[in-house]
Structures are given as structure tokens and as C-alpha cells.
Amino acid sequence: MRIVGWMAAAVLATGLCAGLYLVVQQSERQGADDAPARLVSQVAAQLAQGGAVDVAADDPRTVDMAASDAPFFVVYDSADRPVAGSGRLNGALAVIPSGVLAEARRTGADHVTWQTSDGRRFATVERRAGDDVVLGAQSLAPTEDRIDRLGLLILVTWLCLLAVVVVGFVVDRAVSRPAR
User: Which end of the chain is more exposed for a tag (fewer CB within 10 A), N or C?
Assistant: First the structure.
């Protein structure tokens, strides 16, 4: 096999591993929206039926966003003020950028990755519920850790594939040399 064939094999291995990483990363990130979406659906349905959704600060369902990876929700009124919920940051209901709420009001739903000022990242799903918007969220830390571990496995796989290509190239060159 000529060097072009071995280079093509290396490029193919690189492309396959890069594609695999992209698929795994996107699958994991999109999956992080599942729990918040279920929570938003539940809270929005409860609001539609006239139910109360407030969670007191000392309620065991309260989620300290700085310490917990658990899903939480926050209900925002028409003025984008948090009025009820389980997600608390520094003891107060979480406040998300108003542009996210505006988009949920405009389209009926939205989902974004939200990063707080101290660098914590959350998968969020927002849904319009009358004049209010319900946000469901959870920490992305476990998802990002899993993506990092899977990325490392894919990197090791890629390096092994390249090693096979290099060994194959060296063996091919040694075998195809004319005898002296």
C-alpha cells in the first residue's frame, strides 16, 4: 500500500473518532434536558389546574443550586420576577436572564444552557404557562464529567487506531522494499 493509502486510513480514523465524539457529546447534552423538561411539564400542568407550586425556603424539596445536581424549577411572573419554585441560589429564587424568558413567551418554549456568574452551568427548559414562564433546570456538571470521560476513551481509541496505521505503514514499507 502506498503512503497515500495509509494517510487516507489515518484521516478516516480521525474523521470517525471526531464524528463519534460529536454524536456522544450532543446526545449527552440533549439528554440533560430530559429531567428539566419533565419537571416543567408537571409544574405547568399543575399551574393550569389552579394548583399551588410554591416551595418554602426550608422545604426539603428546595434545591441549593450551588451544592446539588438535582433538578429544580422556578416560576417567573409577567414582569420576569421569580415568584415560586425550588431552585435557590444564595438563598433566593434563581434569576435567569430576561431574554430567555422573552423567547419562551414568544415561542411557547425554549431551552438553553445557562451559566451563572460564578461559572456553574445548567441545562434549562422554559415553558410559557399563561402569563408566567416555568423554568426547569439541573446542573450540567455530571453530564459534562461523563462527556469528558467518554471523550478520553474516544481519544485513546483514536491514538490506538493511529498506532495501527503507523505500524501498518512501517510493515508495508519494510515488506515492499526491494531486496539488495
Answer: C
